[in-house]
Design brief:
This protein is of the alpha+beta class and about 290 residues long. Helix content is about 30%, strand content about 25%. It has a domain of about 60 residues: Dna Ligase, domain 1.
């Protein structure tokens, strides 16, 4: 029987994880899966392959996480996604590279360290009344703030002392329309959802009260997401493309999740099978 390792995190209590649906589907195909916290997965020699699934605290110690991936790769164990892609995707300055390849993105500026005056002037420099500031290396909306000139504070600034940040205009459609996520397994579109923040918030994650709804992706969404994937070159085993609608009505990439995307298997009846199909194809090439 083929043995897979799904990397996860030690403390899963605060997260909504539905990988058991994919694990059950893989088991029906003779592929056994063990979920292992990434900090204890350096020796993966007993597995036929490792899939980075739910290590949703990696951003708190990125060097250690990358070292774990390097150890797995050095042991000759197939790893998805590839560590080179993971390194690139872990630093959100990848958005600028995708923009240079022709992908429409939410306008983004970057920096290191902040003062209150700089933060107060950030919306104006972006040409908007409100912006969002978040870490260049981050996940789960950790240390993500919605900022106006009036709300700029030392509290926000204190989170970015000698720390890289990024700032984007606040996209109103995130609240009114939601953030669209399209899921690609081995380069093939599987399913789509729309994430809507709870009333009074702008964060779309379930952990912050966001509402998750299945949706049938429109041709417009599929074209935009497919364009993002094409800019990557070789397709990874798993990727999630997050799209939002800008004020001019066009779609833009908010983020590309190609490390450990939440895949929302429960939102589509065929999603676990699509993922299992992709894993079987990926394993067959190795």
């Amino acid at each position: 029987m083929t043995r897979l390792c799904f990397l996860t995190l030690e403390d899963r209590a605060d997260f909504v994880i539905d990988d058991e649906l994919a694990i059950a589907e893989l088991a029906r195909r003779g592929i056994a899966v063990e979920e292992v916290p990434w900090r204890r997965a350096g020796d993966a020699s007993g597995y036929d392959a490792v899939v980075i699934r739910t290590p949703w605290d990696y951003q708190r110690d990125l060097p250690a996480f990358l070292a774990t991936l390097d150890a797995i790769a050095a042991a000759g164990v197939p790893l998805a996604n590839d560590p080179t892609l993971v390194r690139w995707n872990a630093d959100k300055r990848y958005l600028g590279e995708l923009a240079a390849r022709g992908v429409p993105i939410v306008p983004t500026t970057y920096g290191v360290g902040l003062t209150v005056d700089e933060l107060r002037g950030m919306p104006g420099r972006l040409g908007v009344g409100e912006c969002v500031v978040k870490p260049v290396v981050g996940a789960n909306a950790d240390d993500t703030y919605r900022v106006t000139a009036e709300s700029a504070s030392q509290e926000v600034v204190s989170r970015y002392v000698d720390r890289a940040w990024m700032a984007q205009p606040f996209v109103e459609a995130v609240v009114s329309e939601g953030e669209h996520s399209l899921f690609f397994f081995d380069g093939e579109l599987s399913h789509a959802i729309v994430k809507i923040p709870r009333r009074g918030d702008f964060r779309v994650q379930e952990e912050h009260g966001g509402e998750i709804l299945a949706e049938e992706a429109t041709a417009e969404l599929v074209a935009a997401a497919t364009g993002v994937m094409a800019a990557l070159g070789d397709p990874p085993l798993q990727a999630r493309v997050d799209l939002v609608r800008l004020a001019d009505g066009s779609l833009a990439l908010m983020e590309l999740e190609a490390i450990e995307p939440s895949l929302y298997f429960r939102m589509h009846p065929r999603a676990p099978a699509h993922f299992a199909d992709a894993i079987e194809r990926w394993l067959a090439r190795r």
